[in-house]
Amino acid sequence: MDSVPAASRLAVALSGGLDSAMALILLREAGHNVQGVTMLLWPPQGGETAPLPEAAQAARDLCSQLGVQHTLIDLRETFAEAVVNSFVREYAQARTPNPCVRCNERVKFGALLEAVKGLGATGLATGHHAQVGRSGGGYTLCRGVDAAKDQSYFLYTLSQRVLSQVCFPVGTYTKDVLRAMAAERGLSVAQQQESQDACFVGAGSYADLLRQRVPEALRPGPILNRQGRILGQHLGLPLYTVGQRSGLGVSADRPLYVLRMDRCRNALIVGYAEELDCHSLVAREMHYVSGEAPECTRYLQAQIRYRAQAVEVRVEPSGSSEAAIYFEQPVRGAAPGQAIVLYEGCRVVGGGLIDQVESVIEP
Question: If exposure means fewest CB atoms within 10 Å of the residue's CB, which of 128, 131, 158, 206 is most exposed?
């Protein structure tokens, strides 16, 4: 099992799903004193008389079945500002944000961690597929054992202080093993399907959310190729992302992809697949797990999207919050606003937000 903080009482963040349920059970069966907590995040309205969300009710039922205390923690205001409003602001700037990174940093391992201390807990466990370890007097963050479910990409912002207080009990198991363990214990979550969408988008789409929150950002404009030729009209830059192929409404002799958004001209720039290749980028808001930037020109591996394969890179930190990252081989579809996460083998070194992308093909 993942390294467990020296704590007299562990709070386990329960989402109503398989992974968090098994995190609670594994800790309890290992003899730890546990309590369940569930965050109330969305929608932003609803008083004490509002129906309990289905996921929260599932978490409460699990705790009742196990004889474990369960507490609902209202973090809707924090979530709305730190995650939803940030998500909308980034899209309005024609960037592609990753709300899970912000949620982990500001909500789950920020506001929630502080809230459980008020409940008497001295550590927090979640169902993330990742691992916390010890090395040289400090803490390390590593990939989960199940490569297909590894969530370390979303956790690169966690500091040494936070890592000393958290654990990920399911990080040393594959998803199939967890399902089998849940089935053996008669848990209904054993066959539960996973959600892949942003939790606050709901039955609509992120486009619907943008139309509600920032309709002024959805101004139609020209679709241009790299030579400046008008090929069509877009519906609003925030509705597109780098690498997108479908839904452009233009025809050509070969498939076209979104290369970038030009906010100055309110133009969507499109081109061929090979024009998506980039050889370097600049990342901002860099965070390093150890608290220190790696040596200049150090070679690491980088992941530019959650499901992307890690590739060899050379990293040149610039100051405390920026870094230039050079790819040994061109990568395709790096999108401003997305996270780039640095690894050394399975260990997370750090990461930041993609800011400027240098294309292999000159403009």
Answer: 206
Report whether 68 contacts 35 (CB < 8 A).
yes
Best CATH choice for the domain 277-359 from the list 2.40.30.10, 3.40.220.10, 2.60.40.10, 3.40.50.1360: 2.40.30.10
In the predicted model, what is the mean pLDDT of residues 98-105?
A: 95
> CA 93 to CA 262: how far, in whole Å?
10
Could you tell me how far CA 211 lies from the centroid of its own chain? 23
Q: Which of 300, 349, 355, 360 is nearest to 142 (CA)?
A: 349
Q: Rounded to an integer, what distance in angstroms lies between the CA atom of residue 338 and that of residue 308?
A: 12
For domain 10-191, which CATH number applies: 3.40.50.620, 3.30.980.10, 3.40.50.300, 3.30.470.30?
A: 3.40.50.620
Residues designated catalytic: 103, 199
pLDDT at 46: 57
User: What's the angle, vertex CA 156, arms to CA 151 and CA 160, rounded to 5?
Assistant: 120
Which residues on adjacent β-strands are paired with residue 347? 142, 344
* Domain 219-271 of CATH type 2.30.30.280: yes
Task: Please tell me whether the overall predicted TM-score, pTM, comes out greater than 0.85 for this model.
Answer: yes
Cα separation, 144 vs 134, in Å, equals 15
Average pLDDT along the chain: 90
Residues with Cβ within 8 Å of 240's Cβ and at least 6 positions away in sequence, in order, are: 234, 247, 248, 258, 261, 268
